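Class prep. Write one:
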Amino acid sequence: MSEYVKDSVLEPSEPHRDRRVSRRLFLKGSGAAAASAGAATLGTVAVIDGHPAIAQNATPAAETMPGMETDQRPAAFFNIHESQTVDALASRIMPGTADDPGAHEAGVVFYIDRTLAGTNLGYSLKTYTQGPFPVIEETPVTVEAASSRDIYDYVLVAQEQIARYGYQSVLTPQEVYRRGLGFVDEYSQSQFQKNFIDLSTEQQDQVLTDMQGNKPTNFAGPSALAFFTQLRNDTIEGMFSDPMYGGNQGMVGWKLIGYPGAQGIYTAEDIKNPEFQREPQSLAQLMAKEGH
């Protein structure tokens, strides 16, 4: 099993303490993963050939996210099957239980849905969708891409500099998710004759491991690795961002890592005390205390 999935996909039978420690290891390398998301997609540019899928088939906001018995919220971007699939993917990347919450319990799927719908800042802003695109120097450039440089130009960038370039792709993030989720089900069907949400946890882990290793060949933009990276990064953000963005419900992510959230002030004594702890507080709670 690959390093990233191995550190984060753990069975409920494992000791509580070991699961918490290993899930902290899940954050290892997240900066590098974020930097590689756009670059990993570039190998599929020639395959797309200027005709990315359009993201106009989202279902109305009246639909609700399934599987959230205690928190039914409207879906702004995903349809029901897509929301189930994203929830299942995130739940295997960051597993949890009611007693030791993970991505499902934190509502990560709501964070991703709101972000893609433009409710959160980020993907509602314009993204860079025209060349030249950055390509990591060690990445081999395909013949197809090289012959199309008049349309899909690129610049070679050192690995340590790629993070400076941000999100760049001929696909918008919305298109990446809509196409990527379809490819996940295609691959799951080819391996186990079922959609991803109907697989056992072991089978789901295998699909994610294959994606992280860029093994599936049916991902015709985004690549399997690029979509895995996108999912992993968005799971991290949804798990540990302020609850106002849709995820980290009950501040379970902050409680997991001991982060205090939005605090108004720390005294000099607080800062000097190595054992100082404070219950996490959201921005909404802070503003309520200050009368806003």
In short: DSSP finds 14 helices and two strands in the chain. The chain has two domains: 3-251, 260-292. Confidence is low (pLDDT under 50) at residues 1-70. Strands lie at 133-136, 154-157.
